[in-house]
Write a structure and sequence with these properties.
alpha+beta, Arc Repressor Mutant, subunit A, two-stranded antiparallel sheet
Length: about 100
């Protein structure tokens, strides 16, 4: 759980080498490698994942994003934090986002 809290205290930014599109309530993300879409690594986010993706702005912490998920989807704070933390970690591992550079 300590690792989850660490993720929740950080601010993330999206990788700039991505193309995103919203289709039928889902977000589709295609990484760009060597100026070409990496069609072998297309990511599709459901409604909640799409909301989290939209909230990643380099200013909000994982906790702030989880609070918005809690209010928007009427889930418990604990559930929102757990799911948001896991989702942010998976996006980071996939190379779709990174920690915001410290000022």
């Amino acid at each position: 759980m300590e690792e989850d809290m660490d993720v929740l205290t950080r601010c993330y930014v999206k990788d700039t080498d991505l193309v995103t599109r919203n289709v039928a309530g889902e977000t589709i993300i295609v990484p760009i490698r060597n100026k070409v879409g990496d069609l072998g690594s297309i990511y599709t986010l459901n409604e909640v994942g799409s909301t989290i993706w939209q909230l990643i702005d380099g200013k909000k912490t994982g906790s702030q994003i989880a609070e918005e998920i809690c209010m928007t989807y009427n889930v418990t704070s604990e559930e929102a934090k757990k799911d948001t933390s896991a989702f942010l970690k998976s996006l980071e591992e996939a190379g779709l986002l990174r920690l915001r550079d410290e000022d």
